[in-house]
Design a protein that fits this description.
Length: 245
């Protein structure tokens, strides 16, 4: 993961949800639907970033679901100032951060949160969306035999392996920017070759002129990026509305 993962723009807005816990983890929750839930697996800026909380509110209202944005970094917060200050971003060690939050360490927590939604909170349908870091996680949640989620979505996924693509068994949506050094051209081609052969619904959406991170950290004051933000949000809302109801 590189500089594209630790830069971007902070959005304005007042999150409307509340903080609670699921599976023993701090969680932002928005919405009140008792049958349909969405689990967000965040990027490296974590569960407190206003951008993601505002998105969670949109998903809750527009897809009619209860949305859970869970802290999967054990309380570690990447300073949101990194989004706007290149000097601060330059000194943030992404490699060391990922070493503290690798798949083996955080995967069990992500699975525990999904299980809590299904088994403890009793949601009939659960979807999951992963941004950047969270991309690999939602593919694992949707793997054959797990029975944890009913559909997944991801925008500019990172750390994703071809074996994780091979194993997915629930409907998949991918929001793919033109410029993405992490969801590479080879991975894009592999996804578009393999997923249509798996017998599941597949929605691949390409965003020309946009870059890794656009769906959660794009600049709403830039016309092209704003259009991409809105298109991505609407695509996710439609996807979950279709598969969770």
């Amino acid at each position: 993961m590189g500089d594209c993962c630790k830069t971007g723009f902070r959005w304005t807005g007042n999150p409307e949800g509340k903080e609670t816990k699921i599976a023993g983890l701090d969680t932002y929750v928005s919405g009140s639907n008792k049958d349909a839930a969405i689990l967000i697996v965040h990027d490296i800026f974590g569960w407190t970033l206003t951008n993601l909380r505002v998105l969670a509110d949109h998903y809750a209202k527009e897809a009619d679901a209860t949305v859970y944005l869970v802290d999967f970094f054990g309380g570690e917060i990447v300073p949101p100032e990194n989004l706007e200050d290149p000097e601060k971003a330059k000194h943030f060690d992404v490699g060391a951060f990922l070493g503290r939050h690798d798949k083996d360490k955080r995967g069990p927590e992500i699975f525990a949160a999904a299980k809590a939604l299904k088994n403890e909170l009793g949601y009939k349908k659960v979807g999951a969306i992963g941004f950047c870091y969270g991309g690999w996680a939602v593919f694992q949640l949707g793997a054959k035999g797990n029975n944890l989620v009913d559909c997944i979505s991801t925008a500019h996924p990172s750390l994703l392996l071809t074996s994780e693509i091979d194993a997915v068994s629930v409907p998949v949506q991918i929001l793919s920017p033109e410029n993405d050094p992490l969801y590479t051209e080879d991975l894009k081609a592999y996804s578009n070759k393999v997923i249509p052969t798996l017998g599941i619904e597949y929605d691949y959406q390409y965003f020309p002129g946009l870059a890794h991170g656009f769906a959660t950290r794009g600049d709403p004051n830039n016309a092209v990026q704003k259009k991409g933000l809105e298109r991505a949000k609407n695509a996710v809302v439609y996807w979950f509305a279709q598969h969770l109801h």
